[in-house]
Amino acid sequence: MNADSHKATARPxxxxxxxxxxxxxxxxxxxxxxxSLMWWSTAGLMLIEGTVFAxxxxxxxxxxxxxxxxxxxxxxxxxxxxxxxxxxxxxxLWPNQLxxxxxxxxxxxxxxxxxxxxxxxxxxxxxLRGFEFATLNVSWYTNAYGSVVWLLLGLHTTHLIxxxxxxxxxxxxxxxxxxxxxxxxxxxxxxLYWYFVVLSWxxxxxxxxWAARL
Length: 214
What we know:
Elements: H1 3-19, H2 37-66, H3 79-104, H4 108-134, H5 144-176, H6 183-210
Helix pairs in contact: 2-5, 2-6, 3-4, 3-6, 4-5, 5-6
């Protein structure tokens, strides 16, 4: 077999290999919900943090069964600020969902506006949280009751602060840039995490403010 016939035989193989190459240039560079790696990482984070909250709540009721009186050497916390804070959090779910919807539609301006309202609600909640700490009627070092109540409130406050910072950064990026389309995924997942912050507060609120009254 000469060289020319060898080349003629090799050409079909090269052509076949080129046909197996997929053109992925038209595929999207990001996705929402369970198709996003960010969604799975956020879900894992919420699972871990939700477990921590559950352990802290179990600690509360365990200590209560071991104490001769509950609350220990203290009055139950005043209901005002905790209840007001709960209302603020529940109301924040509305702009939070609208920000999520706008981000998933690719509407940068609307997502920025609704996210700014979420940020305002977060800041208002943090201010009110200061009044909550002031009306607990017990210090964290006074006794076991004080320690576990401050632990519950402190854990939730930590999560609130981190999400407030994240929301502030995303809001600034949406309004001023630099902006990339993948930031819409960040807004969507930030909204998902805010749902976790709000919904995890409801059982904590019941434990801190109502379990002490039962």
